[in-house]
Records
---
Amino acid sequence: MVRAVRVAITGAAGQIGYALLPRLASGAVFGPDTRVSLNLLEITPALPALDGVVMELDDCAFPLLDEIVATDKPEVAFEGVNWALLVGAKPRGKGMERGDLIRENGPIFVGQGKALARAADDVRVLVVGNPANTNCLIAMTHASRAGVPGERFHAMMRLDQNRAKAQLASKAGVGVAAVTNMAIWGNHSATQFPDAENARINQKPCTEVIGHVSWLQNEFIQIVQQRGAAVIEARGQSSAASAANAAVDHVISMESETAADDWVSAGVLSDGSYGIEAGLIFSFPVRSDGKRCSIVEGVELSDFAREKIEATLAELKEEKAVVADLL
């Protein structure tokens, strides 16, 4: 039997959406035996640009693409969707503090969370728009009041995982496929902790293969934490292609069964594991069975790792306090 999925993408006319949509429509994400319908959401002023995106999707003549719905109404965009990719968010402007950005974007995710009540019973949600963890918390809170389980909400940490794997692979002189068990802990921000201590390269401990402990505990972490800013400095715009690719990777991983000897990173609802306050959207190493994901248990954490995790936890608690009235 041919499967059919309906995917909502917010901010669909933006740079990430533009890079993401052809991958979704071509079969690269859900496979060659899955029909795809796309629900595209944009703010009203961007609807003419969205019309142009729809024209291009039409002109690609994707054999698996059944339908495109373009709208500025969240309740229409989320009608019957199996996946909702919440990409659209106001970018951080010059001189804007992180707290200001959180306050600007919060109401958007309140409305989208409420509108997700119109999604299919099996909907899964990936929040890409920054600050992703707290935006995810806001959307999850309001969707859960309409009956959507909180466990179905994820904040995208796959971009950070991919960045970390690429850095370790380069340092070790191997291909990125050789790097496994790359955990990102905490917030998608400059406080995140890329955990090289538990990463493996060709099934050997990363610390054994690279051996440069000072680099792993300092430069490596800083490169991953600041990679987004470095991309903006280099190209004058934020990450788009790599962010879209990470969203694709996340969905593929959640639609598949994770290997027993590996894991992926995702911002998920904390259940208190590893001493992380329950109720936060926090990045953990997770495994998927193809339908739902669970936090990997028993990962050993050094005192160094715990100190880094406490720092990113403190930031997420502060962000939650900033939007307390929206929860």
---
Amino acid sequence: MKSKLKSWRDFHNRINLVYHAIIAVSLIPFALVFLDIDSGEDSASQLEGPTEIGVMVILLATVFMTCFRVWKNAKEKYATIDQDWNIKKRLIVYFNFQIKRYMQLEVGAIVSLVGLWLTTNYAFAIAYLLVLVQFSLLRPSQDKVIRDLKLNKAEREKLRSDEL
């Protein structure tokens, strides 16, 4: 993210655009695969027997471990953002950190999508929905940024002003 950041509105528009684009990468294909499986036509699993079970276990474990990693060290990562930095620099570092978290969640969503396509098992649909719930918990908002960056009253006022 360039330092063209002029106001909260600029930051929020930029992070929201990336956030929604990352979700859309897997949401559209997931909807198509889900509707194809749920259409009533013969949509058998691409795998059979023990191979299917092994792939299911590996893919579901991958989804849950990926999602766990997103939450594991968040507070420690936020603590690395120096409180002495100006708001603009802190927002840029925060933006980069959040994008990495969104990308990690997207990996879990794509693994769920691949699992649903390979096995046609609805456990992957549930896993995908759980990933979407996590995305909703990470939705960028002013209150979340203030809480995560631990901004004091003067910094909050500056953030809410038109200039950073």
